[in-house]
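Contributing new records

If you add data, match the layout below exactly. Sequence lines come first and carry their own label; structure lines follow with theirs. Keep one chain per record. Anything else will be rejected by the validation script.
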Amino acid sequence: MKLLEGLDTLRSEIFGAPLAALSALFVLLALFTIPSVLLERRGRPTAALAWVFSLFAFPFFGVLAWWTFGRIRLERKRRKTQKRRRQFTAQRGSPSPSGATCFDQMFPERAFTDSIFTLYEQDLTLLADGHQFFPALRRELQAAKSTIHLLTYIFTLDDTGESILEILKERAQRGVKVRVIVDTIGSQGAVRKLRKRIESFGGELAVFIPSRLGPLKVANVNFVNHRKIIIVDGRKAFIGGMNIANEYEQEWRDLMVRGGPWVAHTLEHIFLEDWYFATSHALPTPPPPADPPKGSEVAVIASGPDTEPWLFDSFFLLLTQAKKRIWIVTPYFIPNSAILEALRTAAGRGVDVRIILPRDSDVRLVAWAARSYYRALVQAQVKILEARGPMIHAKALLIDDDLVSIGSANIDSRSLNYAFEVNFFARSRALAVELEAYLSALAADSVEIDAQVLAQKSVATKLAESAAHLFSPVL
């Protein structure tokens, strides 16, 4: 016993003092980090408080997180993206508008230079879930004659990814120019194999903000390219929330829109801009479509850390202007105070406000944080519905009788402030009817979270949700 006690004493003497010194060092570093947090998050007190809490609750991880991607990388990458965006726009200009639309008066003139593009399009199709989207995608890819441009956050080398690669290979061997952009975070683990495979058949692969930190990749967490767009021959295009992976084709619920030449022309501009950012190589800009602009009024809105938060602005404006209904489906729901109050006040003036979320999320911490907002919304007569069954990954908004939005952006701080996102907006009665049917089917197989359900939550559940809520600004 005395020997064991002696060993314990020796161990504490050897390791105790260094550990105590290291702990004190990181507490001191956390203290000196606070001014940086206050300056960088000025105007956003909730986010500042969340970072301060993280610094003192977990000094080592808090300090490391802030100085790796919370501040230094944020400013450096923002300046870099802004510079490259200006360079691209100066060289290539922006897509010419195809006519005045209802979206033109919603935003200041500067937004239409490189972030918001308005047009008319008559060739629009809603593709609900993988069983509709992937067959349609394969048909368009197999019919490609000149170019295939594919931008996705996740490209997985599973059955779905392999089948798409085989089509790309066959088209490239027939002379089609194949270019693919993937995000370094979303497609981590597959980038090297993808590059080897795509370049082996004459295609080109660009990686968006490749990390210099190997598997850690902490430098890029705030700047993922979350966009999902595919353009074929500059004539057909897809935009929405689906990545290239088995779960999107076989399991999860999600939405895409297929558009004709004017949508394709606009999305081509966004793809070429991202290609220029990732490679510093400016590709030729295709001419506008010869087809006369007609059909539905459309806006394509791109947002990211190098722009003002135009997607947040568009969501906020639509929520505050809705007169009859606001139906939302989103996998990740962490609204800021402005979006939260826009939803509450809309319900207060008699608008039918419904939010559909997955009952079983793939990210539990985010689900807990989302549920921390339920009580305030339910009290304001907002209907919260948690859909049973497969994961809901769709991101869509239905306003009144004829306005729809489908895209890559979630309703959270990361999507609306940091990530590169793109959403499609249209004033189309036909698309609205299809989206209404889709959302109604989800709602029919959902659990409504009302005041009674909230009152029955256990103390442990409430604590988990309240703790997750503290991290909402950084999720």
